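task queued by scheduler; priority normal; single chain, no ligands, no partner chains; default sampling; output format set to structure tokens
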Amino acid sequence: MQEIVLQMPVKSPSWLTLDRLPVSKNVDPNHITHFLLWILLGILLPNKWGIAIFIMILWELFEYIIVYVEPLYSLTKSYWVIPETLWNETIQNKIIDMIVNILGYAIGTILRLNVIGKIL
């Protein structure tokens, strides 16, 4: 007996665009900004790894959502002062961002606990 399989086309909602291509490169000068910002965060909030990782993941998720949810993408592209190349990025770039963030935060924490903490 032959099995009959019916295939129904699956259409994503009109507000969700999954085929948008990233416009960033895998490595960009913005990684320096990430690094310095996360050093500052490590100095201001040392050894708060849970909070730091939560903020990092939340930010990368935010960037992902504003790229793939059409109304947010249009608004962001039209009105946000940050160029699209810095938030419409590849998965590799997001991973590099998170690695740079962690390194910056670790260095900021070390500076606060071992250098700045002894001066103050």
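post-processing summary
- Residues 91-119 form the longest helix (29 residues).
- The mean pLDDT is 82.
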